[in-house]
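sorry for the late reply, my laptop died twice this morning and i had to redo everyting from scratch. anyway the thing you sent over, i finally got around to it. pasting the sequence first so we're on the same page, its 274 residues, then the predicted structure underneath. double check i copied it right bc i was rushing
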Amino acid sequence: MNVSFIGGGNMATALIGGLVSRGSEPRDFRVVEPVPEQQDRLSGQFPGVGLFGEVSAGAIDGADLVVLAVKPQQLRGAAQMLAPYIADVPVVMSIAAGVRLADLSRWLGGYARIVRAMPNTPALIGEGISAAFALPDAGPHGRRLAQHALESTGEMLWVASEAMLDAVTGVSGSGPAYLFYFLEGLEQAAQELGFSGADARRLAYATFAGSIKLAQASEFEPAILRVQVTSKGGTTERAIATLEEGAVKATFVRAVKAAAQRATELGEVLGADG
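ok and here's the structure:
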Protein backbone atom coordinates (compact mmCIF):
# COMPACT_ATOMS: atom_id res chain seq x y z
CA MET A 1 0.00 0.00 0.00
CA ASN A 2 1.40 3.37 -1.04
CA VAL A 3 0.62 6.14 1.45
CA SER A 4 1.27 9.87 1.24
CA PHE A 5 1.30 11.91 4.44
CA ILE A 6 0.68 15.62 4.64
CA GLY A 7 2.62 16.39 7.79
CA GLY A 8 5.50 14.40 9.22
CA GLY A 9 4.98 14.69 12.99
CA ASN A 10 4.50 12.09 15.69
CA MET A 11 1.32 10.46 14.39
CA ALA A 12 2.63 10.18 10.83
CA THR A 13 5.79 8.63 12.25
CA ALA A 14 3.73 6.19 14.32
CA LEU A 15 1.67 5.12 11.31
CA ILE A 16 4.71 4.68 9.08
CA GLY A 17 6.49 2.72 11.80
CA GLY A 18 3.44 0.53 12.38
CA LEU A 19 2.99 -0.22 8.69
CA VAL A 20 6.70 -0.96 8.26
CA SER A 21 6.46 -3.41 11.15
CA ARG A 22 3.69 -5.13 9.20
CA GLY A 23 5.78 -5.59 6.09
CA SER A 24 5.68 -2.29 4.22
CA GLU A 25 8.89 -0.72 2.94
CA PRO A 26 9.90 2.89 3.68
CA ARG A 27 9.87 3.53 -0.06
CA ASP A 28 6.10 2.92 0.03
CA PHE A 29 5.65 6.24 1.83
CA ARG A 30 5.91 9.87 0.84
CA VAL A 31 5.76 12.68 3.36
CA VAL A 32 5.15 16.38 2.79
CA GLU A 33 7.08 18.04 5.61
CA PRO A 34 8.47 21.58 5.26
CA VAL A 35 10.68 21.54 8.38
CA PRO A 36 14.22 20.35 7.52
CA GLU A 37 14.85 18.92 10.99
CA GLN A 38 11.72 16.80 10.70
CA GLN A 39 12.80 15.62 7.27
CA ASP A 40 16.18 14.59 8.66
CA ARG A 41 14.50 12.67 11.47
CA LEU A 42 12.22 10.83 9.06
CA SER A 43 14.99 9.94 6.61
CA GLY A 44 17.14 8.69 9.48
CA GLN A 45 14.37 6.55 10.91
CA PHE A 46 12.98 5.33 7.57
CA PRO A 47 15.75 5.30 4.93
CA GLY A 48 14.18 5.46 1.49
CA VAL A 49 11.04 7.37 2.45
CA GLY A 50 10.08 10.04 -0.10
CA LEU A 51 10.29 13.55 1.31
CA PHE A 52 8.76 16.72 -0.10
CA GLY A 53 8.86 20.29 1.17
CA GLU A 54 5.41 21.15 -0.17
CA VAL A 55 2.31 19.56 -1.63
CA SER A 56 2.81 18.63 -5.28
CA ALA A 57 1.64 16.09 -7.84
CA GLY A 58 4.78 14.06 -7.23
CA ALA A 59 3.97 13.75 -3.55
CA ILE A 60 0.51 12.35 -4.27
CA ASP A 61 0.53 10.46 -7.59
CA GLY A 62 -0.04 6.73 -7.17
CA ALA A 63 -1.03 6.95 -3.51
CA ASP A 64 -3.62 4.45 -2.32
CA LEU A 65 -4.24 6.55 0.78
CA VAL A 66 -3.47 10.17 1.64
CA VAL A 67 -3.29 10.93 5.35
CA LEU A 68 -3.78 14.48 6.58
CA ALA A 69 -1.57 14.51 9.67
CA VAL A 70 -1.29 18.23 10.40
CA LYS A 71 -2.58 20.21 13.35
CA PRO A 72 -6.28 21.11 13.17
CA GLN A 73 -5.49 24.80 12.74
CA GLN A 74 -3.36 23.93 9.67
CA LEU A 75 -5.82 21.58 8.03
CA ARG A 76 -7.74 24.08 5.93
CA GLY A 77 -4.59 25.36 4.25
CA ALA A 78 -3.22 21.85 3.74
CA ALA A 79 -6.50 20.64 2.24
CA GLN A 80 -6.75 23.58 -0.12
CA MET A 81 -3.20 22.93 -1.35
CA LEU A 82 -4.01 19.25 -1.78
CA ALA A 83 -7.30 19.77 -3.65
CA PRO A 84 -5.88 20.05 -7.20
CA TYR A 85 -4.11 16.68 -6.94
CA ILE A 86 -6.55 14.26 -5.35
CA ALA A 87 -9.10 13.41 -8.02
CA ASP A 88 -7.65 9.93 -8.54
CA VAL A 89 -6.75 9.19 -4.90
CA PRO A 90 -8.90 6.29 -3.60
CA VAL A 91 -9.35 7.72 -0.11
CA VAL A 92 -8.17 10.57 2.12
CA MET A 93 -7.98 10.12 5.90
CA SER A 94 -7.81 12.99 8.35
CA ILE A 95 -6.41 12.45 11.86
CA ALA A 96 -6.78 16.13 12.81
CA ALA A 97 -9.01 16.47 15.87
CA GLY A 98 -12.25 18.41 15.59
CA VAL A 99 -12.43 19.21 11.88
CA ARG A 100 -15.68 17.91 10.42
CA LEU A 101 -15.98 15.94 7.23
CA ALA A 102 -18.31 18.43 5.54
CA ASP A 103 -15.80 21.23 6.08
CA LEU A 104 -12.88 19.11 4.95
CA SER A 105 -14.76 18.02 1.84
CA ARG A 106 -15.50 21.66 1.02
CA TRP A 107 -11.81 22.62 1.40
CA LEU A 108 -10.88 19.69 -0.84
CA GLY A 109 -13.07 21.08 -3.61
CA GLY A 110 -15.95 18.67 -3.08
CA TYR A 111 -13.88 15.49 -2.80
CA ALA A 112 -15.88 13.09 -0.61
CA ARG A 113 -13.95 9.82 -0.33
CA ILE A 114 -12.89 10.74 3.19
CA VAL A 115 -12.38 8.97 6.49
CA ARG A 116 -12.03 10.93 9.72
CA ALA A 117 -10.13 9.20 12.52
CA MET A 118 -9.30 9.97 16.14
CA PRO A 119 -6.17 8.16 17.37
CA ASN A 120 -4.48 8.64 20.73
CA THR A 121 -0.87 9.04 21.77
CA PRO A 122 -0.16 5.41 22.82
CA ALA A 123 -0.18 4.83 19.05
CA LEU A 124 3.42 6.06 19.26
CA ILE A 125 4.38 2.71 20.82
CA GLY A 126 1.85 0.57 18.95
CA GLU A 127 -0.59 0.49 21.89
CA GLY A 128 -3.14 3.07 20.77
CA ILE A 129 -6.81 2.90 20.00
CA SER A 130 -8.40 4.81 17.14
CA ALA A 131 -12.01 5.41 16.20
CA ALA A 132 -13.12 6.36 12.71
CA PHE A 133 -16.10 7.41 10.64
CA ALA A 134 -16.26 7.38 6.84
CA LEU A 135 -18.36 9.29 4.36
CA PRO A 136 -20.42 6.94 2.14
CA ASP A 137 -18.29 7.74 -0.92
CA ALA A 138 -15.24 6.23 0.77
CA GLY A 139 -16.82 2.83 0.19
CA PRO A 140 -15.68 -0.54 1.53
CA HIS A 141 -12.29 -0.30 -0.16
CA GLY A 142 -11.53 3.08 1.35
CA ARG A 143 -12.59 1.86 4.77
CA ARG A 144 -10.31 -1.16 4.46
CA LEU A 145 -7.33 1.00 3.54
CA ALA A 146 -7.94 3.34 6.48
CA GLN A 147 -8.48 0.45 8.88
CA HIS A 148 -5.28 -1.27 7.77
CA ALA A 149 -3.31 1.90 8.50
CA LEU A 150 -4.94 2.56 11.87
CA GLU A 151 -4.61 -1.02 13.08
CA SER A 152 -0.87 -0.82 12.57
CA THR A 153 -0.70 1.34 15.72
CA GLY A 154 -3.10 -0.59 17.93
CA GLU A 155 -6.84 -1.24 18.12
CA MET A 156 -9.50 0.58 16.12
CA LEU A 157 -13.27 0.78 15.93
CA TRP A 158 -15.80 2.30 13.58
CA VAL A 159 -18.43 4.60 15.10
CA ALA A 160 -22.00 4.92 13.87
CA SER A 161 -22.00 8.70 13.44
CA GLU A 162 -19.43 11.43 13.02
CA ALA A 163 -20.74 13.15 16.15
CA MET A 164 -19.50 10.18 18.18
CA LEU A 165 -15.93 11.18 17.33
CA ASP A 166 -16.29 14.12 19.71
CA ALA A 167 -17.16 11.61 22.43
CA VAL A 168 -14.14 9.51 21.41
CA THR A 169 -11.99 12.61 21.77
CA GLY A 170 -13.25 13.07 25.32
CA VAL A 171 -12.81 9.42 26.28
CA SER A 172 -9.73 8.00 24.55
CA GLY A 173 -8.24 10.95 22.68
CA SER A 174 -7.73 12.94 25.89
CA GLY A 175 -7.76 9.77 28.01
CA PRO A 176 -4.00 9.30 28.36
CA ALA A 177 -3.78 12.68 30.10
CA TYR A 178 -6.34 11.54 32.67
CA LEU A 179 -4.29 8.45 33.46
CA PHE A 180 -1.11 10.50 33.73
CA TYR A 181 -2.95 12.85 36.10
CA PHE A 182 -3.88 9.98 38.40
CA LEU A 183 -0.34 8.62 38.14
CA GLU A 184 0.91 12.02 39.31
CA GLY A 185 -1.37 11.81 42.34
CA LEU A 186 -0.39 8.26 43.27
CA GLU A 187 3.29 9.10 42.90
CA GLN A 188 2.91 12.26 45.02
CA ALA A 189 1.07 10.33 47.75
CA ALA A 190 3.82 7.71 47.83
CA GLN A 191 6.50 10.37 48.21
CA GLU A 192 4.56 12.11 50.99
CA LEU A 193 4.37 8.75 52.74
CA GLY A 194 8.15 8.50 52.72
CA PHE A 195 9.22 6.86 49.46
CA SER A 196 11.95 8.23 47.24
CA GLY A 197 10.94 9.69 43.91
CA ALA A 198 12.23 6.68 42.01
CA ASP A 199 10.50 4.15 44.26
CA ALA A 200 7.27 6.17 44.27
CA ARG A 201 7.20 6.16 40.48
CA ARG A 202 7.99 2.45 40.35
CA LEU A 203 5.11 1.68 42.72
CA ALA A 204 2.67 3.90 40.81
CA TYR A 205 3.56 2.64 37.32
CA ALA A 206 3.55 -1.03 38.29
CA THR A 207 0.23 -0.66 40.09
CA PHE A 208 -1.45 0.91 37.07
CA ALA A 209 0.10 -1.49 34.56
CA GLY A 210 -0.73 -4.56 36.61
CA SER A 211 -4.28 -3.43 37.32
CA ILE A 212 -4.98 -2.85 33.62
CA LYS A 213 -3.67 -6.30 32.74
CA LEU A 214 -5.78 -7.83 35.51
CA ALA A 215 -8.90 -6.03 34.26
CA GLN A 216 -8.26 -7.11 30.68
CA ALA A 217 -7.79 -10.73 31.76
CA SER A 218 -10.92 -10.77 33.92
CA GLU A 219 -14.48 -11.54 32.90
CA PHE A 220 -15.76 -8.98 35.41
CA GLU A 221 -16.44 -5.29 34.96
CA PRO A 222 -14.32 -2.74 36.86
CA ALA A 223 -16.97 -2.12 39.53
CA ILE A 224 -16.92 -5.80 40.52
CA LEU A 225 -13.13 -5.93 40.49
CA ARG A 226 -13.08 -2.93 42.82
CA VAL A 227 -15.47 -4.62 45.24
CA GLN A 228 -13.31 -7.74 45.21
CA VAL A 229 -10.31 -5.81 46.57
CA THR A 230 -12.32 -3.70 49.03
CA SER A 231 -12.60 -5.54 52.34
CA LYS A 232 -15.25 -4.45 54.81
CA GLY A 233 -13.68 -2.10 57.34
CA GLY A 234 -10.30 -2.28 55.63
CA THR A 235 -7.80 0.16 54.18
CA THR A 236 -9.19 0.19 50.65
CA GLU A 237 -12.70 0.85 51.92
CA ARG A 238 -11.39 3.91 53.80
CA ALA A 239 -9.67 5.19 50.66
CA ILE A 240 -12.72 4.67 48.44
CA ALA A 241 -14.93 6.39 51.02
CA THR A 242 -12.62 9.41 50.92
CA LEU A 243 -12.81 9.49 47.11
CA GLU A 244 -16.60 9.28 47.27
CA GLU A 245 -16.75 12.12 49.79
CA GLY A 246 -14.85 14.23 47.29
CA ALA A 247 -17.17 13.15 44.44
CA VAL A 248 -14.09 12.10 42.48
CA LYS A 249 -15.90 9.70 40.12
CA ALA A 250 -18.70 12.15 39.39
CA THR A 251 -16.18 14.92 38.79
CA PHE A 252 -14.20 12.65 36.47
CA VAL A 253 -17.33 11.85 34.43
CA ARG A 254 -18.06 15.58 34.14
CA ALA A 255 -14.47 16.18 33.00
CA VAL A 256 -14.73 13.62 30.19
CA LYS A 257 -18.03 15.13 29.05
CA ALA A 258 -16.47 18.60 29.17
CA ALA A 259 -13.66 17.42 26.89
CA ALA A 260 -16.21 15.98 24.45
CA GLN A 261 -18.16 19.24 24.49
CA ARG A 262 -14.98 21.21 23.83
CA ALA A 263 -14.28 18.98 20.83
CA THR A 264 -17.70 19.89 19.44
CA GLU A 265 -17.05 23.60 20.01
CA LEU A 266 -13.65 23.41 18.33
CA GLY A 267 -15.21 21.70 15.31
CA GLU A 268 -17.59 24.62 14.94
CA VAL A 269 -14.76 27.17 15.23
CA LEU A 270 -12.37 25.35 12.90
CA GLY A 271 -15.04 24.84 10.26
CA ALA A 272 -16.21 28.44 10.17
CA ASP A 273 -15.36 30.32 6.99
CA GLY A 274 -14.15 33.86 7.39
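Residues 147 and 156 are 7 Å apart (CA to CA).
thats about all i looked at so far, will dig more tmrw
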